[in-house]
Amino acid sequence: EVQLVESGGGLVQAGGSLRLSCAASGFAFDDYAIGWFRQAPGKEREGVSCISSSDGVTYYADSVKGRFTISSDNAKNTVYLQMNSLKPEDTAVYYCAADYTPPRWLVADSYDYWGQGTQVTVSS
To answer: Backbone dihedral region of 85: left (phi > 0), alpha (psi from -120 to 50 degrees) or beta?
Structure first.
C-alpha cells in the first residue's frame, strides 16, 4: 500500500522558516518523482516544488524560487521541503504527492498518490 505522510507544518511568523517532511512507503521510491503542492482556502491546489528521486532534478514554482529548497534522502525514503523567508501568502495546507513519470511536474493532476497534508500558517 502506498503511503505518504507529511509532517513539520505549524505556525510561524513572517520571515521565519519551516521544514516539511514527506515519508514514503509502499513503492519503489528511487524510481518516482515526489512533489509538494499547497492549497489555500478558496484556491486551487498549486505546485510548489518537485524532485526526481532517480536523478535529483528539481523544479520550483516562481513564487518560491530562492526561498524554498527541496531535497531527497533516498536511504530514508523521505523528501524534505525547507521553507525560508516565509510570507503570509505561503499559508496553506501542504501536500506531498508521488508519481512514476508525471507528464507535467508541477501540475497536481499528474500525480497518482497523495498524502493527507500538513497545515502551514504564516502570521504577519
So the answer is: left
Q: What is the 3-state secondary structure (H, E, C) of 33-81?
A: EEEEEEECCCCCCEEEEEEECCCCCEEECCCCCCCEEEEEECCCCEEEE
Residues of the chain by 3-state class (helix, strand, coil), percent to 5: 5, 50, 45
Comparing CA positions, the residue from 34, 80, 26, 37 lying closest to residue 54 is 34
| pLDDT tens, position by position, 73-123 | 999 999 999 999 999 999 999 999 999 988 889 999 999 999 999 999 999
Angle at 117 between CA 105 and CA 67, to 5 degrees: 60
Task: Kindly state the percentage of the chain with pLDDT values over 90.
Answer: 92
